[in-house]
């Protein structure tokens, strides 16, 4: 029986290995992690991450050919194929701080693999890493273990949170990069055979190592660039009376552009886009390509602009002051169908509103109060962020309450900000919300999910990103 071990039981390692176990019952898959609480959660009824369909898959395989363990060294030592799916966050200190990827976790995993290996292994980069990382990993492995052959493959993951299981079951493509040597080609074949159990072979792409590593960074940069492009146009829509939904639809009907990923929003979030673009920027700078670096930097600049633009809209619409006013925040996760809040635009928007001394009442169906308070307290690394997006002070934390009911969160509020596109927000009883709010009552829709006409009929003053402005807002002085 082939044995697979995955180091890192996170948003990628857990779901990816669960799907491999489901589709390859003859392979023993063990996911290991240094976090005892995470492994305990994977072995319990309450999985550590919320992802539609994940529980079903885990329940079908766990204890049969899918295992979660803290005995990292034992399982790595026994495995034929070792996936490394540890976190690769942005460096916060030292050389390249605020841009470069922090490879501390990756390197310590590689050194551990070298220490415990007694047989040849295929080591698979599942984490998103800077191009050329495989070369460094190869050196660490080969210089720390004699007589053992390691083949390094790059097999970046393209799943999106909220749709991870579907993405893994029917991926657009699986990408495998390896050395162009006989051993490298053999290793690629071995990994390809794993995926070929459910992925059509024509969707399994094999490339050299550097192309695979760079393709992942490029794919995320392209996706984020689409959102920044549509968000940039949303600002122009608001200035001119065009409607971003109509513009996106018309633009996306061009088959060369395509309709997906053109939803204007309060800004993109998530653990990947910003981190990977910053990483790309750093790599370009290190390779003497400042123009290329600047091009990609602007994707993040527009994203920051979009978040601060949203805060400015709220403040200016409500008579230029929100001091002491209750504002309900609907949605804190970075997108629907996940409890993940890493780099969620809600953090920057909430900090912006708190900086204006608003009182926030936050509701998200999947994010706990502790989690929200922690997110609003920690400092994030600062890279060209607008001045008002500052970390929250201890006084500000007192301005935040977290509710488990939308109607409690919105009661007596002056304004409602929709920051995540949860389906349940589309079905809210807005008449009830309006009746219980202060007047005039404002709705700021950062996800374009409400029916603007119906809400205006109820009496709300409505702002929806990139939509023609409410007459109320049109008469306000221009800003930003
Ligand atoms: P995560 O933080 O959820 O999980 C990483 C896990 O690795 C953590 O549980 C951590 O405890 C563990 N870990 C770190 N060092 C370890 C070590 N030496 N030994 C054992 N365990 C260790 O991260 P994630 O979201 O799963 O992302 C993992 C990688 O995949 C990142 O490089 C990310 O960029 C990439 N990626 C993420 C997504 C996504 O949607 N989250 C999608 C594609 C790619
Ligand atoms: C992303 C990539 O899509 C995925 O391929 C990669 O493996 C990891 O990074 P993820 O961050 O999980 O996935 O979610 P995604 O659906 O890409 O959304 C990212 C952010 O962009 C979210 O905040 C989302 O709300 C926002 N978004 C997405 C928009 O604002 N508009 C869109 O049209 C699409």
Automatic annotation (TrEMBL):
<dbReference type="GO" id="GO:0006024">
    <property type="term" value="P:glycosaminoglycan biosynthetic process"/>
</dbReference>
<dbReference type="GO" id="GO:0005634">
    <property type="term" value="C:nucleus"/>
</dbReference>
<dbReference type="GO" id="GO:0051287">
    <property type="term" value="F:NAD binding"/>
</dbReference>
<dbReference type="InterPro" id="IPR017476">
    <property type="entry name" value="UDP-Glc/GDP-Man"/>
</dbReference>
<dbReference type="Pfam" id="PF03720">
    <property type="entry name" value="UDPG_MGDP_dh_C"/>
</dbReference>
<feature type="binding site">
    <location>
        <position position="33"/>
    </location>
    <ligand>
        <name>NAD(+)</name>
    </ligand>
</feature>
<dbReference type="GO" id="GO:0003979">
    <property type="term" value="F:UDP-glucose 6-dehydrogenase activity"/>
</dbReference>
<dbReference type="GO" id="GO:0006065">
    <property type="term" value="P:UDP-glucuronate biosynthetic process"/>
</dbReference>
<feature type="binding site">
    <location>
        <position position="342"/>
    </location>
    <ligand>
        <name>NAD(+)</name>
    </ligand>
</feature>
<dbReference type="Pfam" id="PF00984">
    <property type="entry name" value="UDPG_MGDP_dh"/>
</dbReference>
<dbReference type="Pfam" id="PF03721">
    <property type="entry name" value="UDPG_MGDP_dh_N"/>
</dbReference>
<dbReference type="InterPro" id="IPR014027">
    <property type="entry name" value="UDP-Glc/GDP-Man_DH_C"/>
</dbReference>
<dbReference type="InterPro" id="IPR036220">
    <property type="entry name" value="UDP-Glc/GDP-Man_DH_C_sf"/>
</dbReference>
<feature type="active site" description="Nucleophile">
    <location>
        <position position="272"/>
    </location>
</feature>
<dbReference type="InterPro" id="IPR001732">
    <property type="entry name" value="UDP-Glc/GDP-Man_DH_N"/>
</dbReference>
<feature type="binding site">
    <location>
        <position position="38"/>
    </location>
    <ligand>
        <name>NAD(+)</name>
    </ligand>
</feature>
<comment type="similarity">
    <text>Belongs to the UDP-glucose/GDP-mannose dehydrogenase family.</text>
</comment>
<dbReference type="InterPro" id="IPR028356">
    <property type="entry name" value="UDPglc_DH_euk"/>
</dbReference>
<feature type="binding site">
    <location>
        <begin position="272"/>
        <end position="275"/>
    </location>
    <ligand>
        <name>NAD(+)</name>
    </ligand>
</feature>
<feature type="domain" description="UDP-glucose/GDP-mannose dehydrogenase C-terminal">
    <location>
        <begin position="328"/>
        <end position="452"/>
    </location>
</feature>
<feature type="binding site">
    <location>
        <begin position="86"/>
        <end position="90"/>
    </location>
    <ligand>
        <name>NAD(+)</name>
    </ligand>
</feature>
<protein>
    <recommendedName>
        <fullName>UDP-glucose 6-dehydrogenase</fullName>
        <ecNumber>1.1.1.22</ecNumber>
    </recommendedName>
</protein>
<comment type="pathway">
    <text>Nucleotide-sugar biosynthesis; UDP-alpha-D-glucuronate biosynthesis; UDP-alpha-D-glucuronate from UDP-alpha-D-glucose: step 1/1.</text>
</comment>
<keyword id="KW-0520">NAD</keyword>
<dbReference type="InterPro" id="IPR014026">
    <property type="entry name" value="UDP-Glc/GDP-Man_DH_dimer"/>
</dbReference>
<keyword id="KW-0560">Oxidoreductase</keyword>
<dbReference type="InterPro" id="IPR008927">
    <property type="entry name" value="6-PGluconate_DH-like_C_sf"/>
</dbReference>
<feature type="binding site">
    <location>
        <position position="161"/>
    </location>
    <ligand>
        <name>NAD(+)</name>
    </ligand>
</feature>
<feature type="binding site">
    <location>
        <begin position="127"/>
        <end position="128"/>
    </location>
    <ligand>
        <name>NAD(+)</name>
    </ligand>
</feature>
<dbReference type="InterPro" id="IPR036291">
    <property type="entry name" value="NAD(P)-bd_dom_sf"/>
</dbReference>
<feature type="binding site">
    <location>
        <begin position="8"/>
        <end position="13"/>
    </location>
    <ligand>
        <name>NAD(+)</name>
    </ligand>
</feature>
């Amino acid at each position: 029986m082939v044995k697979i071990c995955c180091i890192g039981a996170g948003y990628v390692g857990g779901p990816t290995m669960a799907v491999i176990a489901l589709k390859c019952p003859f392979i023993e898959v063990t996911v290991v992690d240094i976090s005892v609480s995470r492994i305990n959660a994977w072995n319990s009824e309450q999985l550590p991450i919320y992802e539609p369909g994940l529980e079903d898959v885990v329940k079908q395989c766990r204890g049969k050919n899918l295992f979660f363990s803290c005995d990292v060294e034992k399982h790595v030592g026994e495995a034929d194929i070792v996936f490394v799916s540890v976190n690769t966050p942005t460096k916060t200190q030292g050389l390249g701080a605020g841009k470069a990827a922090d490879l501390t976790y990756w390197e310590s995993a590689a050194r551990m693999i070298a220490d415990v290996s007694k047989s040849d292994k295929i080591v698979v980069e599942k984490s998103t890493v800077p191009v050329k990382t495989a070369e460094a990993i190869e050196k660490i492995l080969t210089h720390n273990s004699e007589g053992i052959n390691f083949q390094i493959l790059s097999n970046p993951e393209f799943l999106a949170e909220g749709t991870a299981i579907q993405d893994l079951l029917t991926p657009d493509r699986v990408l495998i990069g390896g050395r162009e040597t006989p051993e490298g080609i053999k290793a690629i074949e071995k990994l390809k055979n794993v995926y070929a159990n459910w992925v059509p072979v024509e969707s399994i792409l094999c490339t050299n190592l550097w192309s695979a590593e760079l393709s992942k960074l490029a794919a995320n940069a392209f996706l984020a660039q689409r959102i920044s492009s549509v968000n940039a146009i949303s600002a122009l829509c608001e200035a001119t009376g065009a409607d971003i939904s109509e513009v996106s639809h018309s633009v996306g009907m061009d088959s060369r552009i395509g309709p997906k990923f053109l939803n204007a929003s309060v800004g993109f979030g998530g653990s990947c886009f910003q981190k990977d673009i910053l990483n790309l920027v750093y790599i370009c700078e290190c390779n003497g390509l400042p123009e290329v670096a600047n091009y990609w930097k602007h994707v993040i600049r527009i994203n920051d602009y979009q978040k601060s633009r949203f805060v400015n809209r709220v403040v200016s619409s409500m008579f230029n002051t929100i001091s002491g006013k209750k504002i309900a925040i609907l949605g804190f996760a970075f997108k629907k169908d996940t409890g993940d809040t890493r780099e969620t635009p809600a953090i920057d928007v909430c900090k912006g509103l708190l900086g204006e001394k608003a009182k926030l009442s936050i509701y998200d169906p999947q994010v706990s109060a502790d989690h929200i308070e922690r997110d609003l307290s920690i400092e994030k690394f600062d890279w060209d962020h607008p001045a008002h997006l500052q970390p929250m002070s201890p006084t500000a934390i007192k301005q935040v309450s977290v509710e488990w009911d939308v109607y409690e969160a919105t009661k007596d509020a002056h304004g409602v900000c929709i920051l995540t596109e949860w389906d349940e927000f589309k079905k809210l009883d807005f008449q009830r919300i309006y009746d219980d709010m202060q007047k005039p009552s404002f709705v700021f829709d950062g996800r374009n999910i409400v029916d603007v006409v119906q809400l205006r009929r109820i009496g709300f003053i409505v702002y929806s990103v990139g939509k023609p402005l409410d007459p109320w807002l049109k008469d306000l002085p221009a800003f930003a």
